[in-house]
Amino acid sequence: MEEKVCCPKFNPIPWEDKEVVFENRMFIKDTMTQIMHMPLPGSFAKIIGRMWEKIENANAKPAEKDLLMLCYDPSPWKSEMYVSVTREVPDAENVTISGTFMTKVFDGPYNHVPKWIKAMDNYVADKGKKIQKYYFYYTTCPKCAKKYGHNYVVVFAQV
C-alpha cells in the first residue's frame, strides 16, 4: 500500500536563481517559540494547522501554484510564519510583504541552513546586491520530503 502524502510535489525549476518582486503580497502571520532556531516539538504543525484553519474558514486559500509558507527568524528563540492568502483573514494578523528577493533552491536536511546562507551570501554578492533579510520556504513537511526523496527549501534573500 502506498504511503499517503499531504504536500504537493514541489517543482524547484521556477524558483532556482530567480529575482522575485512582491508588491503588497498578502499573508497572515503567526509566531513560534524555538530554541536555537529549532521549533519546539510539534509546534510547527500546530501553528500551520491553526493558520490553515483560519485561511479555509475565510475562503482565502490561494491556488496551489501561488501558495507560499515563509519563515523568518528574528532571533534564535522566535520564528515568524507567513502563509500567503487571497484576502484578509478575520482573527489573524494580516500583513503584506513588498520587496525584491533573490531565490535559490537547496535540497537537504535543515541543519544545512548555515551552509545555504553562506551560498546565498555568495550568490547575491556576485550579483552586486546586499541582503537585508532571509525568508525560508519549506516546501514540504518531513514526511512528504521522505516520500518524495527531496527536502527542498527555497531561500528568499530580500535585497
Helix-strand layout with pairing:
Layout: E1 18-35, E2 38-39, H1 43-57, E3 69-75, E4 78-84, E5 93-107, H2 113-126, E6 133-138, H3 142-148, E7 152-158
Antiparallel strand pairs: 1-2, 1-4, 1-5, 3-4, 3-6, 5-7, 6-7
Structural write-up:
This protein is of the alpha+beta class and 159 residues long. The chain has a single domain (13-158), classed as Multidrug-efflux Transporter 1 Regulator Bmrr, Chain A, CATH 3.20.80. 23% of the residues lie in helices and 39% in strands. It is built from three helices and seven strands, in the order E-E-H-E-E-E-H-E-H-E. It has helices at 43-57, 113-126, 142-148, and strands at residues 18-35, 38-39, 69-75, 78-84, 93-107, 133-138, 152-158. The chain has a six-stranded antiparallel barrel.
Question: What keywords describe this structure?
Answer:
7 strands; Multidrug-efflux Transporter 1 Regulator Bmrr, Chain A; 3 helices; single chain; alpha+beta; 23% helix; 159 residues; six-stranded antiparallel barrel
